[in-house]
Amino acid sequence: MRTTKLLATAGLLGASALTALLGAGTAFAGSGDSGSSGDDKAPTEAGTSFRTAQEVEQGRRATAGASTGDYLYWSFPADAGQRPTVKATVKLPDSAARPSGATWRIDVYDGLRRRQSCMYGSQSRAAAPDATSVDLSCTLRTVRAWSEQWANDPLSGTYYVRLTAATLTPSDQGLPVSAEVEVTSKEVGGSSAVDGSLAAPLVPGSTTKEAAAASDDSSDEENGSKAGQTLATGEPKDGWSSGWWSDRWVWTAAGGILAALAGIGGYALTRGTGRPSRVPPGM
């Protein structure tokens, strides 16, 4: 009877501790949500190169007007543990003004301007002659907190989206179009966590700004002008996590608690009830 009560108490305590740990992990992960506040406005134009890419927060829809043949660039921050999905919609002019279809394409590059492959999605699509819009999407691999130098793994930092018409005929060039781009992320969690982190996220231009801040007064103006030409330096709403947190912490702690409870239960079951009555004292 006492053993049963002990095991029931131990199980209840273990379940309570596990529930508390899972709740804390969920709350912590939720604090790093990729959503943005409603006060900021999404950009209504796009850049024409990496250096002029318009910054857009995850969860917001950026728009831009352009002509077929233009290269449109946006940038967004992605942190470790996120799996970004880029969706783009190109609204085409009337079919009467569009004698032939064009093939539209989106490409995503990391902070080192390395093109990142898509896990799935329609990265390239040809517009039908009677189509009024073209929908594109690209889901990247999970962003890692650390990787080997020779690898092409996506790392935390700034990412660039390039939207353009891959194939055009002379009659297609110069036609007015409008584009919409939206980036969302899925929090993957500890299944993709690694034992390591970058010294700093791959945000181009940050080194130039640090150099400008540490320069002498005599060269402040020169360095300031260079810093003003740096690339995108946006970061997630709650800052860079640097990959130190994952739900592996929760499951490791829960496993330790369950192992301790199993040891207590095993001891309670095997220790017996004390000295048998048939054994005389002193033996």
Terminal CA distance reads: 28 Å
Approximately what portion of the residues adopt beta-strand conformation?
25-35%
- Spatial shape: elongated
Structural class: alpha+beta
Give the overall pLDDT as a whole number: 77
What oligomeric state do these chains adopt? single chain
Reconstruct the topology from this structure.
Elements: H1 2-31, E1 54-55, E2 61-67, E3 72-78, E4 82-91, E5 103-109, E6 115-116, E7 118-120, E8 124-126, E9 133-140, E10 157-167, E11 176-187, H2 206-213, H3 220-227, H4 248-270
Parallel strand pairs: 1-3
Antiparallel strand pairs: 2-11, 3-10, 4-9, 4-11, 5-6, 5-8, 5-10, 7-9
Helix pairs in contact: 1-4, 2-3
Task: Give an account of the 3D structure.
By secondary structure, the protein is of the alpha+beta class. The chain has four helices and eleven strands, in the order αβββββββββββααα. It has helices spanning 2-31, 206-213, 220-227, 248-270, and strands at residues 54-55, 61-67, 72-78, 82-91, 103-109, 115-116, 118-120, 124-126, 133-140, 157-167, 176-187. The model is unreliable at 24-39 and 215-230 (pLDDT under 50).
